Amino acid sequence: MQAHHTPPAGPLSARQQAIVTISALTATGDLPHLHDALAKGLDAGLTVNEEKEELVHLYAYCGFPRSINGLNTLLKLLDERKAKGLKSELGKEASPIAENGSKYERGKKVLETLTGRPEPAVKTGYGAFSPEIDRFLKEHLFADIFERDVLTYQERELTTITALVSLGGVEAQLQGHLGIGLHLGLTAA
Known about the structure:
Layout: H1 14-28, H2 31-43, H3 48-62, H4 64-83, H5 103-115, H6 125-129, H7 131-145, H8 153-167, H9 171-183
Helix pairs in contact: 1-2, 1-3, 1-8, 2-4, 3-4, 3-8, 5-7, 8-9
C-alpha cells in the first residue's frame, strides 16, 4: 500500500520537521506555539487532513483532551486563514479500512509489520496480566488507527516517538517505538 511506503533514511524533511514540532507541542499542551507550528506545517506541504490525522493519532499517546485541544487549534487556524483569503489544501480522506478478519488479528499483523517480528504466541507481562489492554492495543491502536492511510507508518512513528519524548516518564514505551522507527527507516541522527 502506497501510504505505508518507507522513504529512504536521511535528514528530516520540512514535512517531517513539522510533524515533530506539531507532535511535541500537542503532547505538552503548548497551544499558542502549536498554532504557529500548524501554520508552518501547512506551508511545509502538510495538508489539513494530514495535520488532523496527526492530532487524532496523538490521543492514543497523550489523551483526548490534548488531541481535542490540538484539533480546536487547527480549526481556529483554518478560520483565520480563510478570513485572510489563504487557501489550505484539504488533502485526501482516509480510505475505507478493509475489514478482512478480526480487528485483533489485523492489529496484530500491523504490529508485526511495524516491529519486523512475529508476536509471541504466549503473552507475558502486562499482556498476560491484562488481556484487555492487549486487545485494546491490537484492535484499536493498531487496527483502527494505524490502518488509516492518511499518514505513513513512518510518519505515525515519528509522531509517536516525539510525543513520548515530550511526555517523559515512558521510557519502556519510548524504547519500543524507537526500535519500530529504526525498523521503518528512521535514523538515530
